[in-house]
Predict the structure.
Amino acid sequence: MDLFGDLRRMNKRQLYYQVLNFAMIVSSALMIWKGLIVVTGSESPIVVVLSGSMEPAFHRGDLLFLTNFQDDPIRAGEIVVFKVEGRDIPIVHRVIKIHEKENGNIKFLTKGDNNEVDDRGLYKKGQNWLEKKDVVGRARGFLPYVGMVTIIMNDYPKFKYALLAVMGAYVLLKRES
């Protein structure tokens, strides 16, 4: 397979068409993602479980579907995805305690199902409870192990670049019949 020979044989119109086709695929994926953000109310409507802290409920590589509707109260027992100041990656854990103040504000404590202690050690220094603003979303469904592709691509960057190169070459060289 001579990739560059195929590109040279393509006329300019075909090449423009293939590049435009590739751009449409990328923009369609982006529009779907942004649409999911609007529909679910979550800044990240789909996340991958990266550790075994939630086993047996969720395993490493499970793909979670999230919602984050502001008027829906958080309850003990729910699985939430939250961000902690100073950490780049959101955490998926279960709410174990709710602390409701007299003014109606709710704070809560989380813990991984497979962990011995609560998450206070994961929160920023001096923080003992999470608030609604910390929540990225709440788990509403999942697909087991589908996210392993993401984990493999993060663990092995060369694999990620090879996969992207193959997909890009396929889109550019695919001939319409």
Observations:
- The mean pLDDT is 89.
- The longest helix spans residues 12-40.
- The chain has four helices and seven strands.
